[in-house]
Amino acid sequence: MCGIIGVTGNGPVVPRLIDSLKRLEYRGYDSAGVAAMVDGAVERRRAQGKIRNLEAVLAEQPLTASVGIGHTRWATHGAPTTANAHPHKAGRVTLVHNGIIENFAELKAELAAEGHVFESQTDTEVIAHLLDAELNTGRAPLEAFKVTLDRLTGAYALAVLIDGQDDLILGARRGSPLVVGWGEDEMYLGSDALAVGPFTQKISYLEEGDYVAVTRSGAQMFDVTGSPVERAVVQVSASSAMVEKGEYRHFMEKEIHEQPDSVQHTLSEYLDLVTGKAKPQAVDFAALDRIQIVACGTAFYAGQIARYAFEKLAGLPCDVEIASEFRYRSPAVSPRTLAVAVSQSGETADTLASLTWCKAQGLKTAAVVNVHSSSMAREAEVLWPTHAGPEIGVASTKAFTTQLAGLFLLTLVLAKLRGRLTAEQETAYLAELRSLPNKTQKVLALEPQVEAWSQRFANKHHALFLGRGVHYPIALEGALKLKEISYIHAEAYPAGELKHGPLALVDEDMPVVTIAPNDQLIEKLKSNMQEVRARGGELYVFADGDVHIEESAFVHVIRLPGGSNGALSPILHTVTLQMLSYHAALQKGTDVDKPRNLAKSVTVE
Ligand code: M6R
Predict the structure, then answer these.
(1) Distance of alpha carbon 228 from its chain centroid, rounded?
(2) Side-chain half-sphere CA neighbours of 514 within 13 A
(3) Which domain holds residue 259?
(4) How far apart are CA 322 and CA 320, in angstroms?
(5) Does some domain include residue 600?
(6) Whose CA is nearest to atom 4 of ligand 1?
(7) Has residue 602 been placed in a domain?
(8) Which of 245, 442, 594, 600 does the annotation list as catalytic?
(9) What is the CATH number of the domain that holds 558?
């Protein structure tokens, strides 16, 4: 996650860029940089580390201009050095980027073969070279920009300056947020409302695939097809934009939609995106004979899913237990056990107590937490951070998917160390993980279909969720989300267990939500679906794209984009279930972000 700002105005722009970057430092502070138009040519100043280092550079080498862009970096591709700091420059083009260009290696090879010389290890620099090459063919800036964007795979928010264009900033977004800020004879681009907060509270949120040409007098916006569009101008309160809903109705909705970004940010904690390899971890995995995960609620389900991977891929026995049970059970633990606490807040009392107990037993301890200054982060010997950013909605969404992504990467590291993963398998899994932000974005596009289903849930009193294997905990998570925010009673079962009792509940009134990935259990799951249909139950099936399920009046199917989702399937299916419960709650008019009787952080027993 990086922060972006662009200003085209009349007065000195650089101090204002710095002001904005300071507000964006929460998105990363590995390096920072600004670029500004000086007599028709763009000049840059960059520094490793925090904004204050950049200020020191600017004090030595001031930059005076009225058009400029700025960036604060959370390093993904390439070390946090000055050479890798944004803005990046190639020929006439200078730009800043938030996101990850998945096909950068292919593009870089192609450009290098044409004689382009690169000065950084970043994925971003290829965009500058591509755009410069398009300009050199004689295309106008907007046309060249569109052609460039069409060649990129992955996620981006961009702000671009072009030498000679002294009142123009180009911007674009796909998978990473970007807003246009409206001022008086002055315009802005920024990562969020907070970025442009010092200058304006009038914001247009660009939509997926949009691009824009910003000048002092306004903004020309285009959608993904290249057609001119207008995006509504909304008034925001900038002072607390970081904890505001922005364009969304609820924090939960915002947090669901932030998942491509937060998953990507978390992946880059564990994955070196330049080499494509998992980063080494400060744990002597070889000395372990067991993993004990402790967690509560949604985090417990993340632990259950991780268990499948730890045992299947790494061959290491793994126990997962609800912390409020574990802490009072006097469990028998082997001294070579690694105890892992999983928690968004890092403050959940039962999880913290379980972690402390494990530590007192002399076990190695680790914490997978989203709040990095939390009690668990400090208590555990090893901190494995997730980077979901602040999660305000009580219902956990992006914290969960980032936990899944982080834990899966850690499994790969462990599996490799234990000699259970071939180089080919590792490469294949890592490639899958790298495509996760993009695939998550595609799943989010199913929202209108999911919303249409949700209308049929609003008047229900009960729902059943079915999954098998690693998707059983996903069914549990889907049921928890539905009951938590819509107050509809929901149960989750492993589908093979239906005939041992819960089938008695099934009638025409009971919606049965089924998770149908294309895995080795799919045929068995289909038989379980038949059992439901034979009792009059109505099925709502979320299926991988290549699963064949016949639709009928009582079997509704939403297909995830693409074919089989493989190892990523649990994460992608989760997103559909989040949207279902969110829209069911909207229909019912409940307090989505603050459901009754609950709190975000449960710091008491
Ligand atoms: O902060 P934690 O992850 O430790 O919180 C654990 C649970 O309280 C939490 O996941 C809870 O179940 C969520 N409200 C579920 O959406």
Answers:
(1) 29
(2) 33
(3) 243-434
(4) 7
(5) no
(6) 343
(7) no
(8) 600
(9) 3.40.50.10490
**Domain match, 323 and 396 both:** yes
Does the beta carbon of 365 lie inside 6 Å of ligand 1? no
Is residue 452 located within the same domain as residue 564? yes
Choose one of 238, 255, 271: the last residue of a domain.
238
Q: Residue 69: which CATH number?
A: 3.60.20.10
Query: pTM of the entire structure?
Result: 0.73
Query: Same domain for 257 and 383?
Result: yes
SS3 of 488-500: CEEEEEEHHHHHH
Q: Is the dihedral of CA 597, 599, 604, 605 positive or negative?
A: positive
Ligand 1 centroid from CA 298, angstroms: 5
Lowest-confidence segment of 170-184, 305-319, 429-443, 588-602 by average pLDDT: 588-602
Q: Which of 2, 296, 318, 358 is catalytic?
A: 2
Q: What is the pLDDT of residues 292-305, one digit of tens each?
A: 999 999 999 999 99
- CB contact at 8 A, 169 and 160: yes
**Overall domain count for the chain:** 3
Q: Are residues 393 and 447 in the same domain?
A: no
Q: Are 131 and 95 in contact (CB under 8 A)?
A: yes
Give CA separation, 152 vs 54, 367, 455, in Å.
Answer: 30, 36, 37
Is 313 exposed, middle or buried (CB count within 10 Å of its CB: 0-12, 13-18, 19+)? Answer: buried
355 lines ligand 1 (CB under 6 A): no
Phi-psi region of 154 (alpha: psi -120 to 50; beta: other; left: phi over 0): left
Tell me the per-residue pLDDT of 403-453, one tens digit each, with 9 for 90 and over: 999 999 999 988 988 889 898 999 899 989 889 999 999 999 999 999 999
Is residue 351 lining ligand 1, measured as CB closer than 6 Å? yes
Evaluate whether 204 touches 183 at the Cβ level (below 8 Å): no
Q: What is the CA radius of gyration of the chain?
A: 25
Same domain assignment for residues 310 and 280: yes
Strands 277-278 and 271-272: antiparallel
Q: Residues 216, 258: one domain?
A: no
Residues 564 and 545 both lie in one domain: yes
Residue count of the chain: 605
Q: Is 318 a catalytic residue?
A: no
Decide whether any atom of ligand 1 lies within 6 Å of the 166 Cβ: no
291 plus 358 within the same structural domain: yes
